[in-house]
Specification:
The structure is a homodimer. Chain A is α/β, with parallel strands linked by helices. Chain A has 16 helices and eleven strands. In chain A, the strands form three sheets. A seven-stranded parallel β-sheet of chain A has the order 1-4-5-8-9-10-11. In chain A, strands 2-3 form a two-stranded antiparallel ribbon. In chain A, strands 6-7 form a two-stranded antiparallel ribbon.
């Protein structure tokens, strides 16, 4: 096994010392990059781009050609998994993703099966393999999945909506049905992430985008419990290398202690949480990933520099911090702002290591 | 001054003993009620309804005719204040509210003036007076306003959008401009709430719907500081009666201690916070209002009963709890569920008092 030339991300995820704070950005390959939009136009659609390993590899690598990022993340979408379950994914301009056959009937729910990643998500695994090869061990590759609950939100609602009334009605009225979906999702997420690891992903992240819309008791029962179970089923090592895991619940700031006890190596935090406070709460157990407000990237180089400095200062000295935004890069971000951010984090963080 | 026949709300807001836990619901007069939809149809539009004191009084009273609620809240919208500032409010079906002249230019921002409630918001004050008269001191009437920051979000964005990129760009790039808007808004909110109190509102609430989208430091500087200042300017008494104040920041669960120190009498909490934990954090300083997930009302009578029981049990014994949802009533709520909720809260809460 060749060693990673830049292993700062892996080391920071495991709270090992690094010479500076590594940085990558959620949605770092995306619409704010003109070269991404060009590739997407060639693909014809977002979904066609996801399903074409050559083009998905191309867009995965685009931000690394521009910026000195410390990791790549495979270009994909969390809804590829429900699509592989037969729910029929499509993207419409302006409306976001839709599943054509959302789960409403008990019969459909009982018929749900765990997809075989090698068969139904082969295009993602092919992308992982191609990206790994193209990266030539310069920086690590992150694989990812939606959390069981977040996937269930889309699978029951059929798309994103602000009140989640179908999935919540099921939660409060027919919890056993939602638990059944979550059990299937949990096994599917585990198999999917393990397949990404076997194909070359060197760290994995679970995105719990909608867990923060739950009450405390419901979050534990319907979201965190299944993420914990998925984590238990993950390969912790592959070919002699430790595979760190990251768990990110957007809006989960109130539950950091419980999230840190889930078995993950690193907890992602959104920008509403003070990262210094988060570190004092859970920093002895796990590393932290985050947490600049993505809107700072819209406000010019001085604001970006100050924002980076503030997050680094709030975390303070020592190991266990992966710099990131608190949410994905906005499509309105000037690429130059990302360059300023990456350089500022690399420069300013040396004083803390 | 005639005494209120049912003063449980006022007493609970001030942490005084009551025989049971009072309940009212955010957006209790709204689209889930067929009689509301009928009145709105007669008015022609939502905005026409807000601006017609006779019809606004009618819809304010509608939920009290159906349910044994312990308070009325004046039917209005938080955007009436930016409308009174000349920003041009209109509502479009399916899209939500829009301000026709959002604040983008420094000149427009510098020209912003505090509207005189007696002149520009007279229709709200007339509604307050008419509702007070119609209530005949049966239950108290709550007046309300958006928070300075939440109003600024709409005033800069021109409408609701999920990333708040204009107002956040201003916050990070031209903070002095946002501070200017917030100073004007703060004086406007104070004048508006005091005018409602003078017209008959017996408690007042500030809705900080978007403060929870800020980071911790930004929340304190751009939202909480101005709510505190607005609270300082509020009449605490009117005609010998104490006027309690409620402050509600949606998504503010991480900042409860700071919110409780703002000078308000009661802190509203959303459903993501455990109300027992919230009470142990701030319950010696303020009363708490909340916090059932509005989605529980979609899930049938058993779920509603269980949900009410769980919130009451989590708060526990003693004074200082006003039952409410953690957010407004969904338009998809069956009115019967509200009846079940109100009765369950009244019945079950007696054991805790």
């Amino acid at each position: 096994m060749p060693k990673l030339k830049n292993d700062t991300l892996i080391r920071a995820l495991l709270r090992q010392p690094t010479p500076y704070t590594p940085i990558w950005l959620m949605r770092q390959a995306g619409r704010y990059l003109p070269e991404y939009n060009a590739t997407r136009a060639r693909a014809g659609s977002f979904l066609a781009l996801c399903k074409n390993p050559d083009l998905a590899t191309e867009v995965t690598l685009q931000p690394l050609a521009r910026f000195a990022l410390d990791a790549a993340i495979v270009f994909s979408d969390i809804l590829t998994l429900p699509d592989a379950m037969g729910l029929g994914l499509r993207f419409t301009e302006g409306e976001g993703p839709r599943l054509e056959r959302p789960l409403r009937e008990e019969r459909e729910i009982r018929n749900l099966v765990v997809p075989d990643p090698d068969q139904h998500l082969r295009y993602v695994l092919d992308t992982v393999r191609q990206v790994r090869k193209a990266l030539a061990d310069e920086v690590p590759l992150i694989g990812f999945s939606g959390s069981p609950f977040t996937l269930a939100c889309y699978m029951v609602e059929g798309g994103a909506n602000s009140d989640f009334r179908n999935v919540k009605t099921m939660l409060y009225n027919r919890p056993e049905l939602l638990h059944h979906i979550l059990e299937v999702n949990c096994r599917a997420v585990t198999a999917y992430l393990n397949a990404q690891i076997e194909s070359g992903a060197q760290a994995v992240m679970m995105f719990d985008t909608w867990g923060g819309t739950l009450g405390t008791a419901e979050y534990r029962e319907f979201s965190l419990a299944y993420m914990r179970r998925a984590l238990e089923g993950l390969k912790r090592e592959h070919r002699g290398e430790r595979i760190p895991s990251i768990l990110f619940t957007k809006g989960g700031g109130a539950w950091l202690e419980a999230i840190a006890a889930s078995g993950c190596d690193t907890v992602g935090i959104d920008w509403t949480v003070d990262i210094g406070t988060a570190r004092s709460r859970i920093g002895v157990r796990v590393a932290l990933q985050g947490n600049l407000d993505p809107a700072v990237l819209l406000a010019g180089p001085k604001a970006v520099h100050n924002g980076a400095a503030a997050v680094l200062a709030a975390f303070g000295h020592g190991a266990g911090h992966v710099f990131n935004l608190g949410h994905g890069v906005s499509q309105f971000t000037p690429p130059e702002s990302v360059a300023v951010l990456v350089d500022a984090v690399h420069d300013l963080s040396r004083a803390y290591h």
